[in-house]
Structures are given as C-alpha cells and as structure tokens.
C-alpha cells in the first residue's frame, strides 16, 4: 500500500471512530463478545470491528486500500446479517446502515482530498493500486439522419464507449463514430467534454460532477444533453410547451437568483395575505378534483413552488416565473362563471407578483437581456376583454354565450376530438387557452392575441358546415359572441397603434415598484424578540432558548461534513453585522437571511435523524415568520391599529402609559393616528393602604375623556394646567391598570436577564407559578396579582382590619426586580404570605358556607401546598441542610428552604400521585390524562440525546446467567406494552417498573464491570438514565399532584354552585307561590313547620343509625376510586359475558353443522343402499329367468331321450317342504 493510500485509510478510520459519531458508532468499536451472543459465530463467519480494522491497517495486513474498504464494509454487513429479523436488536440495523453511509461519504472525501489537480495525475494515482480500472463514458446518440438502407432503424440509438487511454472500439459500419476529449478544472462545478462526430461538427457536453464525486472525474455521461438538436417548435406557442432553453442558457438558476425568487415569493405572500390563502396548497376538494384536472393541464400552487425552490428543481428563473404565473392563469381558466368573485383576487395578486418580479429579478440582472418572458404591455386590457366575453348572456335562455368556447373541444367530447374535427380545423383554440397563453407570456403583440380570439369563432364556423339543429345552435352562439368581440378587439388594435399605446408600452418597460428600506432600529427589535423565544421539548420537558444554537457560525472542525449539505451558511451574528452595516435594502432581504438559518438547520439535520434540532429549527422558523409578518403589518399600517395599550414593563419602562378608559368604566378610544397629536403621559399613583380615596394625577396638554363635559356642567373653564382628579374608590380599577401602577411605584427595576444566582431562580419560580391554570391568562379564575382592596373596593375596610401585611404577586415581582430582598427565603415568605392572607380573611366566610369565601379558602389551601412544592423544586440548588429548622407539611403558611422540607414535600407528592388510579380507556378511544402522563414518562427516557445510553434497556436479550441474579427481568419495551394493554392500575406501578430496569442493570453489571468494558458502559448508562428518570419523575410529581388537587377542589366548588343554584330556584318558586296565593301564606308556613326535618321512623327493633347518610360524607378520592372500581368490574363482566356468549354461539353453530353433516351422510347412504338393492333385485330376477330357461330346456332334453329309449320318467318329491326365503328390510329405509 502506497503512503497516499495509507493516509486515506487512516483518515477514514479516524472519522468513523471520532466522538462526533459516538451516537452511532459505539456498537462497532470493539469485537462482539460471543459469551453474550452464543449464535453470533454461526451466522457471521468472519467477524470484524473498527478496532481490529485499525490494528490490521497499522500492521500492514492490507496490500491495497480496496482490501481495507472490503473489511470496513464487512463490519456493517455483519451487523445487518446478524440483527436482521430480531425484534430486540432491530435498531442495530439502522445504526449499521448509517455507519455504512458515513463510510461511503468519508471515503469519497478522503479520495477527493488526495486527488491531483489534473485528470492524468488522477489516473496515475489510481494505477498504483493492484486493480487497474480505466474511466469510461457511455453515450447514447440519437441519429437524426440515416442512409436509405438504414432508414428502417432511424428510431434506434447507437451506443459508443470511449476510454481515456485507448481509442474507441470498432463499431458497425452504420454507427456514427464519436471521439471524446475529457478535461477538468480544479474547483469547477461542472466538467466539460467535447464530442466530435464523424461529420466533423464539434459538440460540447456539460457533465454535472455532483457533490460527492472527486474533482476531475465526470459523473454519468448519460446525464448530458442530447447530441442532436431538438426538433423545431411550432410557430404558435402554447401555454404548456413554452421554449425556455434560451433563457436557461442566458440566466441559469444559481444561489443568488434562487434567493431573489424566494424573496419574490415571500413578498407576495406577505403583501397578499388574505388573497394568497387560496393558492397556498393544491386543489384537493373531492368535488372539484376530477373536473379541475380535466380542465387544467398543469396544476400549480405556491406551496409546490416553494418546495421546488428548496429542492433546486428549477433550471432557470424563467421556469420559476412560468410556474408562478400558472398559479393565477389556472384560476382564471377554471373559474369561468359570470361575474366570478375570483377575478379581482387573481388580478390583484398577479399585479403584485409582476411588480415583485421586476424589482427583485429583472432590475438586479447585470445583463440587458431579459431573464424571463415579459407579459404583453396591455395584458390587463386583454384579460378584461376575455372577462367581458365570459359575462355575455343569451337573451333566450339566460345562459352563458361563451360556455362552449371557454375550454378545449375535447373537454366537451369526453377527452377526444370529434370525428373529422382536425380535418376541418387545423389549429384548435378556445378562450381558456388564450388566457393561459396571455398570462404565460406567449404573445409578442396584441395582434397575435386578436388573431387567436377570432380563430375561436372561425374554428366553430369551419366545423359546423352542415345544416342541422346542433350546427344552428352553435353558430348562433358563435355569431352572438362575435358581435360582442369585434368592437372590443378593434378598440384594442386602435389603442396599440395610437400614441397612448406607445406610451403605455414604454411605461410598462420602465415601471418598477418602490420598497422602503427597513430601519436599523426596527430590525434590531425583531432580533431582540426572536432571541427571547423559548423552546420546550415535548418529550423531555426541557426548556431552552430557541436561538442559542444559531448565534454563531457552525464550526466545520466539529461538523466536517456541514458544507456538503449546506451551500450558503448563515447565523444570527452575521445578520447582526449586516444590520449594523445597513446591508438590507428591503425587508425581504432580512427575512431571507434569517429564514436561511433555520432552513440550513433542517437541511443538515434531517438526513442525520436529529429530531430535536429539526423540531427546534421548524419551531424557531415558524416563530420568526409570525413575528416578522406581525411587525411588518403594523409598520405598513403606520402603527394606527393597536389592539392592546402599551403598558410600562421592565423591558420598556420609558414607554408612556395611556389610559383610554377612565376608572369609572368609559370606553377606551383608539390610539392616536399619525395626523393627531398624541397625548402626554398619564400616570396613576396608588396611595397608602390606609387612605380612603384614590387620587389619579393626570398631567396632559390635550383632552381628557369627559373633561369638557364635566367643566361645562360645573360652569368652570377648563384650564391647561395640571390638575388632580379625585375619583371615588367604590368603582373597581381594571387589573391591567392596577398592575401597571404597581410596577411604576417601584422605580429602578432591573431586566430579568440582568438577574443571576438566587434572584434569577426566584424569578423562574414566580414565572412558573404564574403559569398555574388558576392564576394565569388575562382573566384568571382567582385574583392574586394586585391588592385585594383595589379589585374589590367594597371589602377594603374589612380587609385592612384583618390583614396587617398585604401582599400580591405583582408587588413581589417588582420588589424582586428592584433588589429589595436579601435572600431567597424572604421572597418565598412573601409568596406564602399572599395565600396565607387569603386563608385568614376568608376563614369566617368558609365556616358559614359563603360561596366566594369557600372558593378562595380552598384555592388558597391548595396554592400554598403547590407553592411550597414548586419553590423547593426550583430552588433546590440553594437548599441547606439544617436539622434545627422546623420541618413542615400540608398547608403550612411558612417554610424554610432546607433539604428536609424538600424530602417531606416529595413524600407528600408521591403519596398523592403513586396511589392515583389510572383511568383506563377503551382501545381506539382518546387516552385519559393519567395515561398521557405515563406515556410522557416513558418517552422522556427515549429522547434522541439519550438513545446511546438507552440502547441497553429498550429491549434487552438477557445473558444465560441473568435470571440467576435478577429475579424480575424487565425492559422498556415490556413497560410500554404493559401500559398499552392496560395492565397498570396506578401510576406508582409503572414508576416502580421503570426504576427496576436500571436497578437490575446496576446489580448485574456491578460484578463484572471491572473486567468487561461493555458491562462498565452498561453500568454507567444505568446511572445516567436513572438520574434522568428521577428528574422526569420530579416533573411528573409536581404537575400530577397539582392536577389531582385542582380537580378535587373544582369538583367541590361545582357541587357547591349546583346546590346554591337549586336553593335559589326553590326560593324563587316559593316566592312566586306566595305571590300567587297571598291568603294561604300562613297555612303554607305552618305546613312547612309541620314537615319532619329528619327521616327516622319508629321500628320494633333498635337501629340507631337509620337516618340517610350525607352524600358529601364520602371523600372525593374514595368516591372516584369506587367509581373506577365499579367501572372496571363492569368492563370485566362485559368481557366475560361476551366470551360466554361467543362460546355458546360457537357450540350451537357446531351442533347445527354436525347435524347437517349427519343428515347429508344419511341421505347419501340411503341413496347408495337403494341403488344397491335395485341392482341386487335385477341380478336376482335375471338369475331366476336363466334358471327357468335352463330347467325347461333340460327337462325337454331328458324327456326326449327317455321317449327315444322307450323309458318312462320317475317323479321325485321331497318329504319335507323347503323353507321360504324372506327379504330383510333395510334399517335406513325410513330415513
């Protein structure tokens, strides 16, 4: 092996064993241990692995690199051969195929790096190997002209093989000889070859080399263009056969033109949001598809165009423009009803599309030649003529006159032309085809358009020459259409020849839209909001910043094959630098660069099955598109339409607080437009809690809502000086106004990103608490966000009397951002104070059964427990181990951040969750929430990032001595199947099984991990996955325990509301009855008093607990558990009854079948016996007849003989008569 070959093989080995591929190469690094797989050597005759491969390479075992290649491929072939068809190790086949593909890529890359610059040097390097191969190219040449003796073979093809070191092989005399000269350039995208036929004409071939081929080597020559020129196209261009070869040569598609096409498409979708929704997807309505395909030859939509752009399926810009125009021409061609509503939509979209094509493509081309066919300058007038003709109505039947001229003739005749039609009509034409040709730029002048329009009428008259009813019908419509058409066409021709037409033609060539350059501040705002986006993995429940992976350029040292998949890298830092340099001329330029980041992510990670990165790229791309379109829509509207007022927050503390709605409840006005002068800042100050009035200080130079009206009523003149408006606090303050006011009262608040340490974790704890279903969203179920006396002013005095230290969530957040708290315990104490205050205030109302007090008391009880669980979970990195601090549980109003409290909280959640019964659903039904939580727990272990570790536990093949050590073997697949078969009764059972998987692995591999590397890897993986499992269990405990508590309280609240509603209805009925019967009021009251309040009756035996039990005496958990048990019992009984019914039915069916078989057999046997009986009777009769004949003949002979001898015969008689034979009756004759 030469040094160059040795270097190639070493680079391939290093690439395959690198850490970048540790997620797929870990099974191939070491030899397979036959002790774990006893049948391995029976299937694999020659084992191989990457370590042995590297050792053989260094020892000089391989004479050529081909031998090295064979052994390397053997590794993965062995894996496929052994694991194929094995359910427990089927994933190994996928890993082997990925490694095989990686080996092929690395081999080609290594050979490309060692390839000399010229093709001859490449041949020299290749000839150093033991197997010498000569590069050859096969060409199939279609002969355009042949001699007379070979004219019968004109449709055939000739195959010529040319080799780089020898002349072409001799061929038959009638085959054109071809000489091929190959040349290559370094770093060239294509290789050029020259072909010289025998006629002497030289033809150049352009052969695409492809991404993975070494430089200088031509890919398949069969992909080259045809050697003979194509036949000439007809002089009448059609919409489906537009000659675009010239445009492909002038402006082939490249990265720059592809980017401009993408910008055109995105600009169209953004500017025509409501109109483009009709063209985003193919026509798929079952009622329309058949008719649509019959009328439209080339369907197209914007989604298909985007897909073709991404897949590089457009050879030139002209092909892209043709497809884009087809979208709108197809719509006009199909929707041909009178005054169709799609026409204005199509015209508007097409106008915008043409303007964008001119701006992004035609305007930026350096050459003067057009890169795509341009539309006729008066195409809008031509379309209007077609629309006018489409709307013509027959005066006799009120139908469309042009109905039979809107589509090709074969559409109305079952898909083929009528008999003799093409003999009479040389060039078929219809209005739909004219529209298609017009919008796809097949007309050079209005004269051609007019000629085609008139041709429609001429064809009709040319075909219908016979005198019959059908001809009269069609000719009458053709004449009526001609009467409407001629004046319009004459007007168009006069316009084309006039000065106005010339001016319109010149204006069409110079027309170009204007797009405003985006401001730097605007683009930075979009980038800032995009960077603030968070992404949560649904399976792993891991939250991360969505743009963290896209900030900097991809390091090709870590990802050496990145440039093989991505041609134009992009990242957010590059976008930031281009924003600073003001390199973005249009918003579409900025949108394309940012979208390119996420497209590159999908393009690179999709072939590698990196599901997490692909999902992250798609999510971030969708978020950016939504954010960009929203911002651009507001920018284009001038910011005049804002749905929600801008309130001061930590992110925009300098923004003005506009209060459009007075505290008293007036309607909030719209934001000021650009022409109006905006009002100045309005601030609301909250006085101390003990104040009895709320003072609203409004400093403004404009108009206050209701200001003039109030001034007129008081008789005073409205002054422009600042004034203080004293507002009655009996009216509640809107919550968003109160939140903004509280935040303003804490100046100097920091941004959330400026926090660190315990403050940052406390902010995370608060944000997660605010996501609770009871206190999240704009209208929470329970209000803890602002002080109670602001939202409920009617209880202000009572609240202040009971609560000495008020606290709310907004105040706690503002204090945290201002830096008031000294440690995390102080912040958590304030959070607990919010709910403990609610308990204190609502305790009396709860005891007497007041509905709102009961609701808030029970909700605060649960939120106190949830806050304690959540704080100890989120802030666990700041917990201390203190034995002196008190340990609390249940509904504690205070707790310390210590390890002991976290252990108690976890024990509480485990008792709640692990004993929760799983609500089992029927097969095919939607899973219950408890089953969904169990599914999430299972899937969290099989995340893409952990597949390397989970390989040992998904579906294990246990060694022979495994059951001797492990009493209960179990795997992930077993748990999944058991869950799907509804064999788990509680959540704790599946948690115990999942924990058992890793405890078994630790117990078994701990013995031999010091001597076995595989056991050590399995042991480490078990530790890693055990930690992952506990993290997933912690998340599940928090969410499930919260849900169980919420459902319990919601059920109690619902029962209470229903009881209150029933009592209200009873009171209403009672009042109505008293109103209708005023004289019987006393009697009714007496009757109500007489009724017994209890139901105990006298009995002749002692029964002290005869009264009915209260329905609410049974706890929610017990009632739910009993209901589930009853339901499961009913399900089992149903299944049992079903099985019994099925067995009875099968038994009855079997008896009926046996009876039918027995009856059929009896009939067959009776028939056979009857036939046999008849045969026997015939035989017996024949025998008796023959005996009688013989007896008669014998008697006559004896008598004759005796008479001849003069002798007399002797009569012999039997002394005892013979018994008569009786016939036996058949036993089956009755059947």
Q: Any overview of this molecule?
A:
The protein has 1231 residues and is mainly alpha-helical. Helices cover 52% and strands 4% of the residues. It has 42 helices and 9 strands. The strands form 4 sheets. The chain has a 3-stranded antiparallel beta sheet, with no helix packed on it. Helix 8 (255-271) packs across helix 24 (587-605) and helix 18 (446-463) runs antiparallel to helix 19 (469-497). The longest helix has 89 residues, at 1116-1204. The chain is extended, with a radius of gyration of 47 Å. Residues 116-242, 639-729, 1081-1113 and 1225-1231 have low confidence and may be disordered.
* Broad structural category: mainly alpha
Q: Quaternary state, please? A: single chain
Helix content: 40-55%
Calculate the mean pLDDT score and round it: 75
How are the elements arranged and paired?
Layout: H1 3-16, H2 40-43, H3 50-59, H4 65-83, H5 91-113, H6 119-126, E1 136-142, E2 157-163, E3 178-183, E4 190-197, E5 203-208, H7 245-250, H8 255-271, H9 273-276, H10 289-295, H11 302-310, H12 317-334, H13 342-362, H14 379-390, H15 409-412, H16 421-424, H17 431-439, H18 446-463, H19 469-497, H20 499-510, H21 520-531, E6 534-536, E7 543-545, H22 562-565, H23 572-580, H24 587-605, H25 611-636, E8 694-698, H26 707-714, E9 723-727, H27 735-744, H28 757-770, H29 788-791, H30 796-802, H31 809-818, H32 824-848, H33 851-874, H34 899-913, H35 929-940, H36 947-950, H37 962-965, H38 972-980, H39 987-1005, H40 1013-1076, H41 1081-1090, H42 1116-1204
Antiparallel strand pairs: 1-2, 3-4, 4-5, 6-7, 8-9
Protein name: Bromo domain-containing protein
Pfam family, one: Bromodomain
Region (Disordered): 142-203, 221-242, 663-682
């Amino acid at each position: 092996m030469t040094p160059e070959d040795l270097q190639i093989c070493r680079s391939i080995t290093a690439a395959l064993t690198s850490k970048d591929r540790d997620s797929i190469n870990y099974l191939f690094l070491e030899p397979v241990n036959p002790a774990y797989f006893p049948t391995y050597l029976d299937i694999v005759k020659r084992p191989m692995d990457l370590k042995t491969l590297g050792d053989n390479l260094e020892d000089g075992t391989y004479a050529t690199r081909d031998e090295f290649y064979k052994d390397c491929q053997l590794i993965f072939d062995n894996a496929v051969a052994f694991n194929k068809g094995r359910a427990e190790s089927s994933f190994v086949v996928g890993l082997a195929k990925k490694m095989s593909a990686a080996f092929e890529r690395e081999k080609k890359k290594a050979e490309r790096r060692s390839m000399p610059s010229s093709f001859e040097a490449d041949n020299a390097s290749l000839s150093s190997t033991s197997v010498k191969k000569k590069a050859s190219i096969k060409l199939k040449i279609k002969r355009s002209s042949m001699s007379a003796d070979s004219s019968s073979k004109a449709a055939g093809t000739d195959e010529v093989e040319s080799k780089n070191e020898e002349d072409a092989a001799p061929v038959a005399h009638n085959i054109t000889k071809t000489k091929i000269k190959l040349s290559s350039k370094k770093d060239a995208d294509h290789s050029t070859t020259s072909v010289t036929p025998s006629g002497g004409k030289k033809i150049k071939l352009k052969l695409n080399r492809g991404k993975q081929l070494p430089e200088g080597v031509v890919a398949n020559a069969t992909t080259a263009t045809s050697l003979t020129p194509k036949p000439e196209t007809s002089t009448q261009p059609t919409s489906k056969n537009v000659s675009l070869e010239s445009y492909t040569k002038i402006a082939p598609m490249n990265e720059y033109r592809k980017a401009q096409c993408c910008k055109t498409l995105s600009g169209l979708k953004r500017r025509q949001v409501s109109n483009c929704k009709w063209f985003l997807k193919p026509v798929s309505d079952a009622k329309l598809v058949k008719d649509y395909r019959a009328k439209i030859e080339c369907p197209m939509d914007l989604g298909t165009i985007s897909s073709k752009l991404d897949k590089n399926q457009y050879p030139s810009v002209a092909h892209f423009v043709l497809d884009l125009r087809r979208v709108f021409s197809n719509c006009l061609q199909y929707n041909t009803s009178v005054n169709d509503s799609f026409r204005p939509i199509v015209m508007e979209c097409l106008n915008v599309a043409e303007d964008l094509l001119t701006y992004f493509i035609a305007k930026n081309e350096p050459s003067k030649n057009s890169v795509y066919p341009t539309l006729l300058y008066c195409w809008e007038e031509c379309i209007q003529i077609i629309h006018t003709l489409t709307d013509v109505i027959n005066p006799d039947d009120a139908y469309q006159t042009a109905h039979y001229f809107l589509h090709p003739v074969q559409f109305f005749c079952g898909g083929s032309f009528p008999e003799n039609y093409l003999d009479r009509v040389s060039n078929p034409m219809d209005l739909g085809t004219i529209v298609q040709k017009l919008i796809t730029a097949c007309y050079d002048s209005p004269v051609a358009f007019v000629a085609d329009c008139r041709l429609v009428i001429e064809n009709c008259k040319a075909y219908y020459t016979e005198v019959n009813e059908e001809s009269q019908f069609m000719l009458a419509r053709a004449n009526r259409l001609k009467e409407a058409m001629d004046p319009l066409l004459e007007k168009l021709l006069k316009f084309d020849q006039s000065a106005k037409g010339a001016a319109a033609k010149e204006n069409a060539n110079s027309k170009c839209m204007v797009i405003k350059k985006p401001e730097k501040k605007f683009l930075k705002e979009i980038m800032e909001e995009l960077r603030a986006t968070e992404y949560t993995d649904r399976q792993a429940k891991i939250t991360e910043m969505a743009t963290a992976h896209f900030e900097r350029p991809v390091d090709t040292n870590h990802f050496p094959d990145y440039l093989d998949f991505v041609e134009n890298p992009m990242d957010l830092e590059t976008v930031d630098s281009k924003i600073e340099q003001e390199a973005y001329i249009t918003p579409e330029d900025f949108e394309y660069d940012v979208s390119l980041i996420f497209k590159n992510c999908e393009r690179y990670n999709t072939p590698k099955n990196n599901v997490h990165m692909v999902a992250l790229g798609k999510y971030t791309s969708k978020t950016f598109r939504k954010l960009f379109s929203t911002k651009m829509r507001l920018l284009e509207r001038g910011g005049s339409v804002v749905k929600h007022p801008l309130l001061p927050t930590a992110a925009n503390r300098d923004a003005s607080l506009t209060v459009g709605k007075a505290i008293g409840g007036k309607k909030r006005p719209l934001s000021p437009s650009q022409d109006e002068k905006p009002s100045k800042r309005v601030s609301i100050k909250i006085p101390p809690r003990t104040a009895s009035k709320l003072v609203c200080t409004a400093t403004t130079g404009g108009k206050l809502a209701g200001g003039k009206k109030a001034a007129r009523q008081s008789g005073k003149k409205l002054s422009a000086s600042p004034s203080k408006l004293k507002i009655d606090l009996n009216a509640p303050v809107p919550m968003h106004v109160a939140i903004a006011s509280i935040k303003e009262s804490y100046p100097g608040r920091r941004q959330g990103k400026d926090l660190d340490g315990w403050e940052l974790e406390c902010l995370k704890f608060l944000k997660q608490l605010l996501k609770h279903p009871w206190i999240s969203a704009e209208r929470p179920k329970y209000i803890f966000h602002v002080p109670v006396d602001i939202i409920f002013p009617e209880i202000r005095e009572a609240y202040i009397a009971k609560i000495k230290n008020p606290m709310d969530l907004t105040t706690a957040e503002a204090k945290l951002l201002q830096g008031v708290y000294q440690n995390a315990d102080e912040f958590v104490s304030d959070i607990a104070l919010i709910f403990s205050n609610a308990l204190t205030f609502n305790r009396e109302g709860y005891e007497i059964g007041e509905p709102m007090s009961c609701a808030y008391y029970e909700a605060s009880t649960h939120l106190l427990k949830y806050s304690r669980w959540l704080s100890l979970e989120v802030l666990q990195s700041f917990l201390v181990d203190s034995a002196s601090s008190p340990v609390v549980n249940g509904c504690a109003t205070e707790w310390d951040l210590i390890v002991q409290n976290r252990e108690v909280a976890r024990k509480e959640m485990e008792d709640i969750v692990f004993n929760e019964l799983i609500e089992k659903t029927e097969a095919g039904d939607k899973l219950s929430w408890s089953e969904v939580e169990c599914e999430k727990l299972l899937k969290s272990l099989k995340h893409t990032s952990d597949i390397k570790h989970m390989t040992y536990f998904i579906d294990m093949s246990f060694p022979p001595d495994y059951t001797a050590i492990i009493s209960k073997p179990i795997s992930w697949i077993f748990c999944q199947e058991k869950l799907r078969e509804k064999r788990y009764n509680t959540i704790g059972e599946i948690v115990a099984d999942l924990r058992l998987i890793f405890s078994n692995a630790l117990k078994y591999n701990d013995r031999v991990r010091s001597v076995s590397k595989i056991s050590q890897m399995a042991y480490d993986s078990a530790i890693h996955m055990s930690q992952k499992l506990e993290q997933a269990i912690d998340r599940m405990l928090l969410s499930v325990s919260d849900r169980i508590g919420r459902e319990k309280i919601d059920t109690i609240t619902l029962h209470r509301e229903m009881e209150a509603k029933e009592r209200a209805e009873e009171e209403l009925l009672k009042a109505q009855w008293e109103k209708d019967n005023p004289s019987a009021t006393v009697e009714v009251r007496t009757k109500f008093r007489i009724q017994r309040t209890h139901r105990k009756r006298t009995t002749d035996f002692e029964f002290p607990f005869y009264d009915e039990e209260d329905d609410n005496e049974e706890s929610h958990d017990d009632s739910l558990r009993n209901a589930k048990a009853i339901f499961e019992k009913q399900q089992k009984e149903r299944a049992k009854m079903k099985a019994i019914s099925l067995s009875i039915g099968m038994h009855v069916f079997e008896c009926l079948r046996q009876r039918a078989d027995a009856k059929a057999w009896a009939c067959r046997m009776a028939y056979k016996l009857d036939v046999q009986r008849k045969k026997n009777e015939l035989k017996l009769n024949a025998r008796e007849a023959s005996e009688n004949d013989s007896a008669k003949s014998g008697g006559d002979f004896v008598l004759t003989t005796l008479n001849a001898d003069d002798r007399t015969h002797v009569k012999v008689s039997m002394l005892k008569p013979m018994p008569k034979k009786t016939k036996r009756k058949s036993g089956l004759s009755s059947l």
